[in-house]
Amino acid sequence: MTSQAWFDENDEPMALGNTYCREKQEFDENKNPVRVTYYDGTGAPIACKDGYDELRQVFNEQNQVARQEFYLNGALVLNNKKVAALEREYDDKGLVAVERYYGLDGERIKSSDGYSRIDKEYLDKKHVTSQIWYDENDVPMTKGDTYVKIEREFDKEGNCTKERYYDGNGQPVLRKNGYAEVQKEYNDKKQVIRESWFGVDGKPITAGDSYCGVEMEYDEAGNVIVMRFLDGEGNPTACKAGYEMVWKQYNEKKQVVFESYMDHEGNPMANTNGVYQITYEYDENGKIVQEQYFDELSQLVTVPK
């Protein structure tokens, strides 16, 4: 058993980034911490920020955490994720491949994240290449969208270059935003400079607008200042609002203060309301309080409501 406590410059007990001032650990024969208990400055047990005053753990033969249980005042309690216990399985890299959640009576339950089990596959520790969610009965489930599984690909810099979405039968499925696959390209600052969308058949698809992809440029502050719209073959195309490219300026609060609409060669091009430029002003809460519209000659125009 070991114990550690934290004190301020007056040797008074203090919490270090949490609620407790002292932590006591008990270990198994392999020196794994099987029980961790938290105490306040008076030596009384106290719940940590995650909602429990005692953590109990079971380890597998590889000394990996196979099960965690959460207690308060000696009884199982739901932690901040609304689970009383969890179990883990690992892949051959030592990464968590399966995690399941349990309630106060040992029954399978959904965590506050909305699922009862999650399975993962990895490229490495930082990059998840496959992810699927399950309900309490181990049936694949959606989590706020249409898909139950995501597959990802990464470039050598660790940027996610492709995501594909699948239904419970393992078939590609359209997300709510209208595509089954998204592909991305990045600059050396890890900013997305091109994004393209595809359907369940792998062919380019429009996603809620008239274009299948978009190219982007950024300013030094990381704001998107240019967007160009592309068709399924990568050629310039107009968005539903009527223009092929938009150029933006921002204020120091990263709010758009100016927009100008163009064709793909940078020539002025009107939107569907006949407007070529728009300026924006904001109040102290960030709400737009004024918009002004301009024609091709930068003259004020009135837009029909």
Q: TL;DR?
A:
With 305 residues, this protein is mainly beta. Among the domains are: 1-80, no CATH class; 210-305, Beta Barrel (Lipocalin), CATH 2.40.128. The chain has strands at residues 2-5, 22-27, 33-39, 54-59, 65-72, 75-76, 85-90, 96-102, 117-124, 127-134, 149-154, 160-166, 181-186, 192-198, 213-218, 224-230, 245-250, 256-262, 277-282, 288-294, 300-301.
The percentage of residues in β strands lies in 35-45%
Rg to the nearest angstrom? 27 Å
- Return residue spans where pLDDT drops below 50 for at least 5 consecutive residues: none
> Tell me, what is the CATH class of the domain at 210-305?
Mainly Beta
Q: Counting H and I runs of at least 4 residues, what is the number of helices?
A: 0
Q: Compute the average pLDDT.
A: 96
H-E string: EEEEEEEEEEEEEEEEEEEEE
Structural class: mainly beta
Q: What do we call the CATH topology of the domain at 210-305?
A: Lipocalin
The percentage helix is under 10%
Per CATH, the architecture of the domain at 210-305 is Beta Barrel
Largest sheet data = 21 strands, antiparallel
What is the terminal separation in angstroms?
73 Å
Shape: elongated
Q: Tally the beta strands.
A: 21
